[in-house]
Amino acid sequence: MGSISALHYLKPTRTTNGTSLFNFSKNRISQLPVAFRSYTVKSSVLEPPDVPRLAETARISLNSQEIEEFAPKFRQVIDWFGQLQAVDLQSIEPAIRADTEGDNLRGDVPEKFENREELISAVPSFENPYIKVPKVLNKE
Amino acid sequence: MALTFLRGIQLNPSMLYPSSYFARKHGVLYCCMRSAQTQTATQEKEQTKLKVSTQSQPKAVDKFLKDFEAVIGIETHVQLSTLTKAFCSCPYNYGSPPNTSVCPVCMGLPGALPVLNSKVIECAVRVGLALNCKLSLNSKFDRKQYFYPDLPKGYQISQFDIPIASGGYLDVDLPLEYGGGHRKFGITRVHMEEDAGKLLHTDGVDLFGSLIQVDLNRAGVPLLEIVSEPDMRTGIEAAEYAAELQRLVRYLGVGNGNMQEGSLRCDVNISVRPIGQLEFGTKVEIKNLNSFSSMSRAIDYEISRQVELHNQGQIDQIVQETRLWEEGAQKTVTMRKKEGLADYRYFPEPDLPGVTLTEEYVNSIRESLPELPEDKRRRYEKMGLSMQDVLFLANDINIADFFDTTTAGGADIKLAANWIMGDIAAYMKNEKVTINEIKLTPQELGELIASIKDETISGKIGKEILFELIAKGGTVKGLIKEKDLVQIVDTAEIEKMVDKVIADSPKQLEQYRGGKTKLQGYFAGQVMKESKGKANPKLLNKILLEKLNAKN
């Protein structure tokens, strides 16, 4: 099983100041080669949170003052999560998901949602039979 | 940059190198790639349209192409034909009225939680095994964030770093028109994910600033994404890879593989490099390929475009981008340039548990797999069928089943193949029906072949009965009896008829005996008529010849 061969990736690398953080950086995750199993703990480097970038991905606008206000708050949260890095995982097989009871699957049995009217009535702009949205350009 | 370049091409149609260069070949190509029932008018139309531009083809392109090699990889999305969506119980039927098959889960309402359809895992395992992949006994779902109105949740549930299957391969037999040959293409990975809704940009709505219509019926429908290794080198190889995937999903019964409906969608990544160079060139992605032939033509166009840029010393104009295939213009055009890697911010889907497979489960599915197209082709080959027969019969699972049932009943293999590929295929094509819609059963085809072989009926009458069986059904025995069609093999009876015809045609007899021996055909025809087509032709001719020459 893949999880065993992945064990040697596990040794957490401490950052110089002893803290590490939960890494939100885009490149960290998206540039991993497909075959690489990213559930292994990556070494972490303390990077200041890129607040304008975070705001952009969340589709919210922040002015420069707000950005300044948010930066230390984000850092606090990240540092708080960073404490997890101190846990010794040497002897623990990595879990890709938290344990849950069973697979919780369902059979392939169709069931129509009964209250469609209410669903549709909650759509801000509906012109039968379509939902209407403003033209947007893909921001990839 | 590329835009001005493209404009340049448009202004100089004589320089429009690639599309027409490959055009001629393709008319032939898709006859074999498309399943029997879908090849019709469109291809003829395209063929003629393409022919127009073939004359003014610069031979130079051919020369350039020889120094370069294309590297092609394909991402395929296969829509699974489950009854319900991936994460909710909404039924999915293609063509349902817009926004009728929706619920809080697939509309992405707050608080709604996904529950995985067990059938999706089953389909993924079936496809993974059929593609000779290694399965991950423990995998998981991840969130892929992107912001677009076809995706109400703001993220797609997909699989990122641990796909359910990876590291496989697909065996492909290339069409004979292109020299045939066998190829093995690597499969990088297979993963499960959900489809997005459909966006409609309606007439009269201009592209800037106005509205888009959204239909969420398709949102949440299960997909398998199958990623190939960059193992293909030509448009033909790529198209045949896709055709084989289509065959595979149809054989496995996991999807209908219909490209027109978007149930099988291929995105192609393509780069060229000088032969001998190890590293890949800059890759370009092509979308909007909705048939195997457009896939093949788009790739060949794109190869030529990139090779031409190499030869003009404009390699820097080959940029990483997504291009669209324009069927009308027979060329690819820039859709969007990639600016760095897309930032999907994947993370494990917190609303779903991991996906666990047991060895027993995998084994039970492995045992339930049908004979796959590749195995079928190799088996047919061993049965002594020609490659042309093999490719035709194995192309469509229903035709293959029909053939298998016919021969399982003891029918002669080559004859069964000939009837199916000849008269039966012609009928299906003319009437635009599938083999499952004709009234002829494999049992009756076997009976027909046996009746001709043992000379109960003649081949000619066999053909007549065949069309009746196809159109109206019934049994061979019943029809023979009803129409009194049993072949006459009784020498005395044939002699009687021959005598009568000779006696009735004194003039012709005289001419015949006077040296006009080709009148034998006239006599044979008359006797056949007399027998209502039932006389055994060999016997008839033998007796006739004896009698005509007897009194000489």
TrEMBL record, chain A:
<keyword id="KW-0648">Protein biosynthesis</keyword>
<dbReference type="GO" id="GO:0005739">
    <property type="term" value="C:mitochondrion"/>
</dbReference>
<dbReference type="GO" id="GO:0005524">
    <property type="term" value="F:ATP binding"/>
</dbReference>
<dbReference type="GO" id="GO:0009507">
    <property type="term" value="C:chloroplast"/>
</dbReference>
<dbReference type="InterPro" id="IPR003837">
    <property type="entry name" value="GatC"/>
</dbReference>
<dbReference type="Pfam" id="PF02686">
    <property type="entry name" value="GatC"/>
</dbReference>
<keyword id="KW-0547">Nucleotide-binding</keyword>
<comment type="function">
    <text>Allows the formation of correctly charged Gln-tRNA(Gln) through the transamidation of misacylated Glu-tRNA(Gln) in chloroplasts and mitochondria. The reaction takes place in the presence of glutamine and ATP through an activated gamma-phospho-Glu-tRNA(Gln).</text>
</comment>
<comment type="subunit">
    <text>Subunit of the heterotrimeric GatCAB amidotransferase (AdT) complex, composed of A, B and C subunits.</text>
</comment>
<dbReference type="GO" id="GO:0050567">
    <property type="term" value="F:glutaminyl-tRNA synthase (glutamine-hydrolyzing) activity"/>
</dbReference>
<dbReference type="GO" id="GO:0030956">
    <property type="term" value="C:glutamyl-tRNA(Gln) amidotransferase complex"/>
</dbReference>
<dbReference type="GO" id="GO:0070681">
    <property type="term" value="P:glutaminyl-tRNAGln biosynthesis via transamidation"/>
</dbReference>
<keyword id="KW-0150">Chloroplast</keyword>
<dbReference type="GO" id="GO:0032543">
    <property type="term" value="P:mitochondrial translation"/>
</dbReference>
<keyword id="KW-0934">Plastid</keyword>
<keyword id="KW-0496">Mitochondrion</keyword>
<protein>
    <recommendedName>
        <fullName>Glutamyl-tRNA(Gln) amidotransferase subunit C, chloroplastic/mitochondrial</fullName>
        <ecNumber>6.3.5.-</ecNumber>
    </recommendedName>
</protein>
<keyword id="KW-0067">ATP-binding</keyword>
<dbReference type="InterPro" id="IPR036113">
    <property type="entry name" value="Asp/Glu-ADT_sf_sub_c"/>
</dbReference>
<keyword id="KW-0436">Ligase</keyword>
<dbReference type="GO" id="GO:0006450">
    <property type="term" value="P:regulation of translational fidelity"/>
</dbReference>
<comment type="similarity">
    <text>Belongs to the GatC family.</text>
</comment>
TrEMBL record, chain B:
<keyword id="KW-0648">Protein biosynthesis</keyword>
<keyword id="KW-0496">Mitochondrion</keyword>
<feature type="domain" description="Asn/Gln amidotransferase">
    <location>
        <begin position="401"/>
        <end position="548"/>
    </location>
</feature>
<dbReference type="GO" id="GO:0009507">
    <property type="term" value="C:chloroplast"/>
</dbReference>
<protein>
    <recommendedName>
        <fullName>Glutamyl-tRNA(Gln) amidotransferase subunit B, chloroplastic/mitochondrial</fullName>
        <ecNumber>6.3.5.-</ecNumber>
    </recommendedName>
</protein>
<dbReference type="InterPro" id="IPR017958">
    <property type="entry name" value="Gln-tRNA_amidoTrfase_suB_CS"/>
</dbReference>
<dbReference type="GO" id="GO:0032543">
    <property type="term" value="P:mitochondrial translation"/>
</dbReference>
<dbReference type="GO" id="GO:0030956">
    <property type="term" value="C:glutamyl-tRNA(Gln) amidotransferase complex"/>
</dbReference>
<dbReference type="InterPro" id="IPR017959">
    <property type="entry name" value="Asn/Gln-tRNA_amidoTrfase_suB/E"/>
</dbReference>
<comment type="subunit">
    <text>Heterotrimer of A, B and C subunits.</text>
</comment>
<comment type="function">
    <text>Allows the formation of correctly charged Asn-tRNA(Asn) or Gln-tRNA(Gln) through the transamidation of misacylated Asp-tRNA(Asn) or Glu-tRNA(Gln) in organisms which lack either or both of asparaginyl-tRNA or glutaminyl-tRNA synthetases. The reaction takes place in the presence of glutamine and ATP through an activated phospho-Asp-tRNA(Asn) or phospho-Glu-tRNA(Gln).</text>
</comment>
<dbReference type="Pfam" id="PF02934">
    <property type="entry name" value="GatB_N"/>
</dbReference>
<dbReference type="GO" id="GO:0050567">
    <property type="term" value="F:glutaminyl-tRNA synthase (glutamine-hydrolyzing) activity"/>
</dbReference>
<comment type="subunit">
    <text>Subunit of the heterotrimeric GatCAB amidotransferase (AdT) complex, composed of A, B and C subunits.</text>
</comment>
<dbReference type="GO" id="GO:0005524">
    <property type="term" value="F:ATP binding"/>
</dbReference>
<dbReference type="InterPro" id="IPR023168">
    <property type="entry name" value="GatB_Yqey_C_2"/>
</dbReference>
<keyword id="KW-0150">Chloroplast</keyword>
<comment type="function">
    <text>Allows the formation of correctly charged Gln-tRNA(Gln) through the transamidation of misacylated Glu-tRNA(Gln) in chloroplasts and mitochondria. The reaction takes place in the presence of glutamine and ATP through an activated gamma-phospho-Glu-tRNA(Gln).</text>
</comment>
<dbReference type="InterPro" id="IPR042114">
    <property type="entry name" value="GatB_C_1"/>
</dbReference>
<keyword id="KW-0934">Plastid</keyword>
<dbReference type="Pfam" id="PF02637">
    <property type="entry name" value="GatB_Yqey"/>
</dbReference>
<comment type="similarity">
    <text>Belongs to the GatB/GatE family. GatB subfamily.</text>
</comment>
